[in-house]
Design a protein that fits this description.
By secondary structure, this protein is an alpha/beta fold. The protein has two domains: 42 residues, no CATH class; 190 residues, Rossmann fold, CATH 3.40.50. 40% of the residues lie in helices and 15% in strands. It contains nine helices and six strands; from the N terminus they run αααβααβααβαββαβ. A four-stranded parallel β-sheet has the order 1-6-5-2. A two-stranded antiparallel sheet has the order 3-4. α4 packs across α5 and α5 packs across α7. The radius of gyration is 19 Å and the shape is globular. It starts with a helix and ends with a strand. The model has no long low-confidence stretch (mean pLDDT 89). Bound molecules: zinc ion. Zinc ion binds next to α2.
């Protein structure tokens, strides 16, 4: 009876607030779907989760000792993916992050290389940025992944201790030196003896992810892998 009522309310709400595709805006979708089948198909899948030595992994070669790394999609300018990431980062559209996290989680599920992950850690955002935005987009992505993978998200395991805004003006060596102490372990309990997946929205130079991975790897019996939604070519 309750479920009939719930489904009735859902249908009714749907009638008043029809849910459109975030990509093309035309199709009316189920509440859980964010994109229509056509737009979903348009997202450029990398297949990196199942590919050893993929370009994302190569970014970290010789920089930090990670197990595996991958991104779910290629990021290109003026693409649907860019639109989705703008929604997530600047338009307070958390649903998009959750949806992208689920898509990445599904890709991970297909791969043997990401089968033994114990917990997810979102890359901490600059605290100033996070308070302005109201949330950390990487944590939202983690929530979507966690729903698929059924593993915990450790939101308070690592903290970002310094502001790094001026670093964009500096050269790479200085930036790296400054980055080294940006992250600190706040709570090791969920990480101890586990394989951690460090998560962010986009990977470009990998400098921030590298610094955070190295902070976690200072603890000897923790393994780290890296995953992002997008990879900038
Ligand atoms: Zn569409």
């Amino acid at each position: 009876m309750l479920s009939t009522l719930q489904s009735y309310i859902k249908d009714f709400t749907h009638l008043i607030f029809p849910h459109h595709c975030e990509g093309c805006g035309t199709d009316v979708l189920n509440d859980e779907d964010l994109l229509c089948a056509k737009c979903l198909h348009e997202l450029p899948v990398t297949n990196y989760f199942s590919s050893h030595g993929n370009p994302v992994e190569k970014i970290f070669y010789g920089r930090c000792k990670i197990e595996s790394a991958a991104s779910a999609f290629y990021f290109t300018k003026d693409s649907l993916l860019q639109h989705l990431l703008v929604q997530l980062k600047y338009k307070s559209n958390k649903e998009v992050g959750y949806f992208l996290g689920k898509l990445a989680g599904l890709q991970m599920q297909q791969s043997n290389r990401f089968k033994n992950i114990d917990a997810l850690v979102p890359l901490p955002l600059n605290p100033k940025k996070e308070s302005k935005r109201g949330y950390n987009q990487a944590a939202i992505i983690c929530d979507g992944m966690a729903e698929v993978l059924q593993i915990p998200v450790l939101n308070n395991a690592v903290e970002r201790v310094l502001f790094t805004e001026t670093q964009t003006k500096q050269d790479r060596i200085h930036r790296w030196q400054n980055m080294e102490n940006v992250f600190a372990i706040k709570d090791l309990t969920g990480m101890q003896g586990n394989h951690i997946l460090l998560v962010d929205d986009v990977v470009t130079t990998g400098a921030t992810l590298e610094a955070c991975a190295n902070a976690i790897l200072k603890n000897k019996n923790v393994k780290v892998s890296i995953a992002t939604v997008a990879y900038t070519i």
